[in-house]
Specification:
Blueprint: H1 11-59, E1 61-64, E2 67-70, H2 74-81, E3 86-91, E4 97-100, H3 110-115, E5 118-124, E6 127-138, E7 145-154, H4 156-191, H5 193-203, H6 219-269, H7 273-309, E8 313-316, H8 317-328, E9 338-343, E10 349-352, H9 354-371, E11 376-382, E12 390-397, H10 407-410, H11 431-441, E13 445-449, E14 456-463, H12 469-474
Parallel strand pairs: 9-11
Antiparallel strand pairs: 1-2, 3-4, 3-7, 5-6, 6-7, 8-10, 11-12, 12-14, 13-14
């Protein structure tokens, strides 16, 4: 791709260059038009003089002894020769030249000359000439008939007049063009002054100052100010979310790390083999909790990031659910877990982010296996029908589930729910919060239910897909 190093890098330079090109194009067009009309004006002026001289020559024709003769009008011819060379020719009805230059070109249309002066362009003695021819009927001549009078004038004076008129008009056009470009430059510089003021305001700000930009600007710049304020607002929200997440993560990591440090200290001073083994097992459990918490913190940050920057694409929800189910069930360790998958269609298309959806479904299954202690899991995908305009994915297990009063809190980050079988809350409180963030990004929702056949169910509801099948594979909502 060619590079235009000469092209101005500033908005003022580019705009002024565009204005200069437009003005120059218009000036060139006006100069051409002025040249044309200057030529027309000089042509008409000198044609009137040439026609007058030709008429006077024709009026000075007379017949003497049946022969046509001429008394040349010196005054008329001298008025033309003051500027150019002048030639004339008189031809009688027989076609005989009775006066003037015999080789001077005659009229192209003798009939037109009988009606009045007929003009033509030609060359004579190596010079460009303009000729005027007029016919006069001479009844006394022998034989009687039309005499043709032709007067020719070189075109130097015409050209000089055309050049003088063109030069004056071109000078005026040039001055007006320079004035227009200069005035445009001043107007553009003044018009861009609010942008420079906005630049100074933003450059002088502290990096932590994320207040909207407030400045009195023309209406044309309000859209830019609105876009800048929108960006600042989103940046403020992102920074607030990051600060809150970092603070929550630091708070959540502080307790297990402190517990890990204490358990290592106790293990290093323990001499009883039985208690040493118990403390070692507790240390392993704590390490596992720290690893799981770290992974969920990173996954939560990843999901938040992807929901804002990754566009949705067609996803086969049925296939994705089977893949995640196959990878998650081995985490049940030694337990024998019964797994079932049901779908109302071989392929169920939605608009989504496959990575975020896999993380959400994995967290739902982890909760059922690790916290619900379930050993029977059924994943069901239901496509929309006439009575339903949504796609639902339901994970049903035979675990203990959650009490209804905890359902809302379970979707908030770092909310640890106390379990009946333990003295302290278990888990990091991030699993279902990640699911909630993913569903919100997909325009869906998370719900809980106690099915009539028993157990506990987590219901993920997605908007109806905009494309299916081959169309869904080829389009991005």
């Amino acid at each position: 791709m060619p590079r235009f190093d000469w092209f101005p890098k500033t908005l003022l330079g580019r705009t002024l260059l565009f204005v200069a090109l437009v003005v120059a194009t218009g000036a060139a067009a006006l100069a051409g038009i002025a040249r044309y009309y200057a030529g027309v004006a000089s042509e008409r002026a000198y044609d009137q003089l040439l026609a007058g001289a030709t008429i006077q020559v024709a009026e000075n024709l007379y017949v003497q002894g049946g022969v046509l003769a001429l008394n040349p009008p010196v005054a008329a011819l001298s008025s033309l020769s003051r500027y150019d060379l002048v030639y004339y020719r008189v031809v009688d009805a027989r076609g005989v030249v009775v006066a003037g230059y015999g080789d001077l070109p005659g009229p192209a249309n003798a009939l037109a000359a009988r009606q009045g002066p007929a003009f033509a362009n030609g060359r004579y003695q190596g010079e460009r000439v303009r000729t005027a021819t007029i016919g006069r009927y001479m009844p006394d001549a022998h034989p009687p008939g039309w005499a043709m009078v032709t007067v020719a004038q070189t075109t130097h004076a015409r050209q000089q007049l055309t050049n003088d008129m063109s030069f004056k008009v071109w000078t005026l056009i040039l001055l007006m063009s320079v004035l227009a470009i200069g005035a445009s430059g001043l107007a553009i510089r003044r018009g861009l002054r609010p942008l420079a003021q906005i630049e100074q305001i933003i450059a002088a700000r502290d990096p932590a100052d994320l207040r909207p930009v407030a400045h009195d600007t023309p209406s044309e710049i309000n859209a830019l100010i609105g876009a800048i304020n929108g960006l600042i607002g989103r940046l403020a929200e992102r920074m607030t979310a990051m600060q809150r997440f970092i603070a929550d993560a630091a708070h959540q990591m502080r307790t297990p790390i402190a517990r890990l440090d204490a358990q290592i200290e106790l293990l290093s001073t323990e001499s009883d083999p039985a208690r040493h083994a118990a403390r070692l097992e507790a240390l392993r459990t704590t390490c596992s909790d720290v690893g799981r918490l770290t992974g969920q913190l990173l996954n939560h940050a990843m999901v938040i990031h992807r929901t804002e920057v990754v566009p949705l694409q067609p996803v086969d929800l049925a296939r994705l659910a089977k893949e995640v189910l196959g990878r998650t069930i081995p985490l049940a360790d030694e337990r024998d877990v019964n797994v079932a998958f049901e779908s109302s269609a071989p392929q169920v298309w939605i608009a989504g982010d496959p990575v975020s959806l896999q993380e959400a479904l994995s967290n739902v299954l982890h909760n059922a296996l690790l916290h619900g202690k379930a050993d029977d899991i059924v994943v069901t995908v239901v496509t929309p029908d006439a009575a339903r305009d949504t796609v639902t994915l339901t994970v049903t297990d035979n675990g203990q589930g959650m009490p209804r009063e905890h359902w809302e809190a379970a979707l908030r980050p770092f909310e640890r729910l106390a379990q009946e079988s333990a003295e302290r809350p278990t888990g990091s409180g991030l699993g279902l919060a990640i699911v909630q963030a993913v569903m919100k990004a997909h325009g869906g929702s998370v719900g809980f239910a106690f099915p009539a056949r028993g157990g506990f169910a987590v219901v993920l509801t997605f908007p109806r897909a905009t494309a299916t099948g081959e169309d869904a594979r080829a389009t991005t909502p």
